[in-house]
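Journal club prep, notes for RB
We'll compare a predicted complex against what the paper describes. Inputs for the flavin-adenine dinucleotide case:
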Amino acid sequence: MKRTADVVIIGGGCMGASVAYHLTRRSITDVVLVEREKLLATGSTGRNAGGVRHQFSNEANIKLSLESIRLLERFADEVGQSIDFHQDGYLFLLSSPASVDVFRRNVALQRSLGVDVEWLDAADALRLAPGLDATGVIAATFCARDGIADPNGVTMGFAKAAQAAGAAIERDTEVVSLRVDSGRIAAVETTRGTIETRAVVNAAGPHARAIGRMAGLDVPVDPIRRHIFIASSNPEPKNAEPRTNNPEPGTRKPEPDWPHSRIMVIDFDTTFYFHREGAGLLFGMGDPDETPTFDMTVQWDFLPKVIDVAVRRLPALADASVSHAWAGLYEMTADGNPIVGPAREVGGLFLVNGFSGHGFQHSPAAGRIVADLIAGRDPAFDVTPFALERFARAKARATGERYVV
Ligand SMILES: Cc1cc2nc3c(=O)[nH]c(=O)nc-3n(C[C@H](O)[C@H](O)[C@H](O)COP(=O)(O)OP(=O)(O)OC[C@H]3O[C@@H](n4cnc5c(N)ncnc54)[C@H](O)[C@@H]3O)c2cc1C
């Protein structure tokens, strides 16, 4: 392993890999990315739903999406990896006047920034997402350029391109402490030795706070467990004749009664969401009772609570079987916005943390911005809403992100 580097990146998820890629594109190639696991993208990045959307409530997040989605659309050509990007849209279902009010303001904001978002009624929503029960839906919004992409593909694309340009990627290597001399980063101590450096990027996802502490800094990111469930379709009616081993030629399994496209449907007022995954369905819902934890054990007693809500919106789920589930960690901040930029109290420390459930989709732009800041370039992006210092101000929550799903 190298003993010196211009930049050390801690964390080999989508965020660290994106920073590495964008640094090499700025001719900063003396870079070491350190990941404690044996593989990249096994943290939050490897456990997410792959959703990518323009529909946010906060201007800075919409701008991150605009830039990120532009890169995801040309990822194979520009970065050299296919990422299975399906732009079948995001459909938000709104069932309360309060949500409609919030969305009215935010659709106006999104449109003012050039996002093509449509207002729909329940009948339009049903046409886009067959199988829905739209009872109680009073309005919906849809953006056709939102979609689903492969988080592993994006991470490996960035990482391989960075490596090809000269960056080193050290797996199975844990950062155990940071050396700070006279208020400036001086070195990174790892389980495989010390790397002298003047610049460190904290890209440790839900572990960002622990890395911050190593430099005497509070990075207020909490790990909050989120579940994802996968349902397989059971399209056979319960009283059907037993199937023969030799179905008549031309007979096909009936399709389950859920969308054929990979449209992401979000029932905003309950946070239940789903999209098609192969022939099955990926779905989840926020659990307001979760408190910060690093425990990623699946809580199977949460499933009946999700199903209760889910079958009201997607009745076919009542006949489906949940084939597997996993849990991962959101890296939450108090206002749902990320922390991006230099840590002013520790020279040479850069933060790209706290994406609160939308870090995969924002990794292309966030990595580019951090690379520009390290390179001393103007990032052409106002990172004030993402400054660490905002948490010292009382009103952080009021200006943060409302669409945390
Ligand atoms: C269930 C779920 C669904 C989600 N759905 C979406 C979605 O649809 N769309 C979306 O945009 N986002 C989604 N997210 C959020 C998204 O996954 C995260 O915001 C994103 O992956 C954060 O990436 P990261 O690289 O910062 O963190 P991570 O992927 O967690 O990477 C951090 C890495 O740092 C490493 N690390 C930590 N400490 C050390 C150390 N001391 N030394 C060395 N390495 C260390 C870890 O091993 C890890 O690999 C979801 C998250 C979850 C849990």
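Talking point for the session: The longest strand covers residues 321-332.
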